[in-house]
Amino acid sequence: MARIGLVAHDDKKDELCAWARRHRVKLGEHELWGTGTTGSRVIAETGLAVNLLKSGPLGGDQQLGAMIAEGRLDVLVFFIDPMTAQPHDVDVKALTRLATLYDVPCAVNKSTADAVLAFI
């Protein structure tokens, strides 16, 4: 069982939820963690059990980063909106930096999320 972090920028939350619905059975085999808003939406739209952290801008991104640094997260699924400036961009960069540093698979769109999920 893998420990999977789920987070999405506002304009990508619908896309992440649609992805989670499509992969509901497979995701249900794993331990899911999500930032507050994203995780709540995934729960509401899929019925999956998601351990909720704070909202991303309120520290949820940093909580996921800490989990990566502590070896408590195996995969990060982070649907990033490359076309919209994020007010908490520093936190976003820190999270993706930690995933890279600790060699944690980090899926930033549907294609990479599909590929990562196929291998866990």
Q: Quick gist of this model?
A:
Residues 1-120 form the MGS-like domain. The protein is built from 6 helices and 5 strands.
Can you lay out the helices and strands and say which pair or pack?
Layout: E1 3-8, H1 13-22, H2 24-27, E2 31-34, H3 36-46, E3 50-52, H4 60-69, E4 75-79, H5 89-101, E5 106-107, H6 110-118
Parallel strand pairs: 1-2, 1-4, 2-3, 4-5
What name does the CATH topology carry?
Rossmann fold
Q: In total, how many domains does the architecture comprise? A: 1
Helix content: 40-55%
CATH architecture: 3-Layer(aba) Sandwich
Shape: globular
**Alpha-beta content class:** alpha/beta
How far is the N terminus from the C terminus?
A: 8 Å
Strand order of the largest sheet: 3-2-1-4-5
Give me the number of helical elements. Answer: 6
The largest pleated sheet is described as: 5 strands, parallel
Q: How much of the polypeptide forms β-strand, as a percent range?
A: 15-25%
Extended strand count: 5
Radius of gyration: 13 Å
Query: Kindly state the mean pLDDT as a whole number?
Result: 94
Name the CATH class. Alpha Beta
Order of helices and strands: EHHEHEHEHEH
CATH homologous superfamily, by name?
Methylglyoxal synthase-like domain
Sequence stretches where pLDDT stays below 50 over 5 or more residues: none
